[in-house]
Design a protein that fits this description.
CATH superfamily of the largest domain: P-loop containing nucleotide triphosphate hydrolases
Helix content: 40-55%
CATH architecture of the largest domain: 3-Layer(aba) Sandwich
Largest sheet: 6 strands, antiparallel
Structural class: alpha/beta
CATH class of the largest domain: Alpha Beta
Shape: globular
Radius of gyration: 26 Å
Mean pLDDT: 84
CATH topology of the largest domain: Rossmann fold
Number of strands: 17
Number of helices: 19
Number of domains: 4
Strand order of the largest sheet: 3-2-1-6-5-4
Length: 519
């Protein structure tokens, strides 16, 4: 039955992401296990591509193979690898498998198999269970038999991506796999997907792009993606922090100088424009650039020529400009702090990067990424979020965006260790360790929180009947869970519904992946 179902999905016209997600769900159902994860090998790390049964933040993790003995054993073998319940090797999914109340955090049964596509190692498929004895010899053989169909699904997905003309984004060279990857953008929210699709279209053009957004949203990552998806991806992308350019040295930094051009110029030196020739020049925090330098920058952009300081002969440069700012440049133009002609030259194609609070569950995916980084840096067995911590993260407004989230997770991990947690245990981060307080909330959110809840007859008329019913159901379930401290069985009794039906309804209402406690 398993092979028939996998084959049916393989031949059906499904979106790639849906096909791989259904694959993991089918395998989980067949093997009666807690979680299934399909991971792709990128450099030295295994990256989750699709998962069923894992908490949301697990999708943001990057599992460095050398740091996880079980994954290393699976990668090294061509057959099914099983680990007995009493295996001393730590499981990378400890604390990450969705649970029913009272179930243990650590995995009791585990098996996996490596996947090869066209003869090359592509990644691995892992299966985990919270109960011992789930994976017997029959399960071992069944996983071995279905591997070819799993590899075929992966191969089909790759072919579909190639047909659509999607180029695979490579990691920045020289960046270790266990470091924060400066070339990777994590998240699956609708606003992020729409943004990435837009960037992929504009990347092929030569239009100047102005990236706008709040501090900490990761504008440099999006600038690098634009470059990597552009025809110039083989040439360098040169980063210029305009806020750190002293006015006295800015011209030399941007355009270069000849020997003797000024005191201390002992040798000729090319500037950032020449370094970016044939590639991309990224002007970060361009709104901070001094007015005197703005005029010279405008001249270089208009003519495609630069002139080294102290040199008479101009030099031609072929570059694409991507600029970024957290300022409202229109206001700066109005106030006389930014040249209008330069603003129009830079903002041929403006792109707004959404703040983290608008990206929904991406908060948890990114938190998972930072948790895994800190687990590795601190040398602990496992770092995870409690259900209440997940709610706290999703409720916070993140004025500092992704950068603030990274700092919050890092501080919480260190606090947990300083308060007595040991490195060989599964460390659960609670809300108090996150130290998220109301002063960090956006004023608009505080204003909404202070408003009284609308009465039923005050429901906005724009909501359909179905949406109104769904909203009422979500509110009732959340209240029941709060009253029972996250106990789903007790909440079902309180609501007078069957427990299994409550779980199904919660999944349909997307409460399981939102702000309610997990099973």
């Amino acid at each position: 039955m398993l092979l028939e179902t996998l084959l049916a999905d393989l031949t059906a016209e499904l979106p790639s992401a849906v096909r791989l997600q259904r694959l993991t769900g089918t395998i989980r159902t067949h093997f009666y296990c807690g979680a299934v994860c399909l991971l792709r090998l990128q450099d030295e790390a295994l990256v989750p591509v699709a998962a069923d049964g894992l908490v949301h933040e697990a999708l943001g993790r990057r599992f460095v193979v050398s740091q996880h003995p079980r994954l290393a054993a699976i990668v090294a073998s061509r057959g099914t690898v099983t680990f007995p319940p009493d295996s001393p090797l730590p499981d990378p999914y400890d604390g990450l498998v969705e649970q029913h109340p009272g179930e243990p955090l650590h995995v009791h049964d585990c098996m996996g198999i490596s996947l090869r596509v066209e003869g090359e190692l592509w990644g691995v498929l892992t299966l985990d269970a919270l109960k011992p004895g789930v994976f017997d010899l029959n399960a071992h053989d069944a996983l071995q038999r279905c591997t070819r169909l799993v590899a075929a699904a992966v191969r089909m997905t790759r072919l579909e991506q190639e047909i659509r003309g999607l180029r695979q984004v490579r990691h920045d060279t020289g960046t270790p796999a266990n470091c924060h990857d400066e070339g990777e953008i994590l998240g699956q929210s609708a606003p992020l997907k729409r943004l990435l699709e837009e960037l992929d279209v504009v990347a092929d053009s030569e239009l100047p792009v102005l990236l706008t957004g709040e501090t900490g949203v990761g504008k440099e990552l999006f600038a690098r993606r634009l470059h990597q998806r552009s025809p110039r991806h083989g040439a360098p992308v040169i980063h210029v922090n305009c806020a750190a350019l002293p006015e006295s040295l800015a011209e030399s930094e941007l355009f270069g100088h000849v020997k003797g051009a000024f005191s201390g110029a002992d040798a000729a030196r090319p500037g950032r424009f020449e370094a970016a020739n044939s590639g991309t020049l990224f002007l970060d925090e361009v709104g901070e650039m001094p007015l005197a330098i703005q005029a010279k920058l405008l001249r270089a952009l208009q003519n495609g020529e630069i002139q080294r300081l102290g040199e008479d002969k101009p030099r031609r440069v072929d570059i694409r400009i991507i600029a970024a700012t957290n300022r409202r440049l229109r206001d700066s133009v109005r106030d006389g702090h930014f040249r209008a002609d330069l603003y129009h030259r830079l903002s041929v194609y403006p792109v707004r990067i959404p703040p983290l609070r608008e990206r929904g569950h991406d908060i948890l995916v990114l938190a998972g990424h930072f948790l895994e980084l800190n687990r590795s840096r601190l040398g602990v067995r496992s770092l995870r979020l409690s259900e209440q911590a997940e709610v706290a993260l999703c409720d916070y407004s993140w004025p500092g965006n992704v950068r603030e989230l990274e700092h919050v997770v890092s501080r919480a991990a260190i606090k947990a260790l300083s308060r007595g947690a040991t490195r060989n245990e599964i460390i659960t981060l609670e809300p108090e360790l996150l130290d998220l307080s109301h002063p960090g909330l956006a004023p608009a959110m505080l204003e909404r929180a202070a408003r009284p809840a609308p009465r039923v007859n005050e429901t906005p008329p724009t909501l359909s009947l179905q949406e109104s019913v769904a909203r009422a159901q979500r509110r009732a379930i959340r209240q029941a869970l709060e009253a029972t401290r996250g106990n789903w069985a007790a909440a079902a009794r309180l609501l007078r519904v069957d427990s299994s039906n409550l779980h199904k309804l919660a999944r349909r209402l997307e409460l399981k992946d939102d702000k309610s406690p997990r099973k």
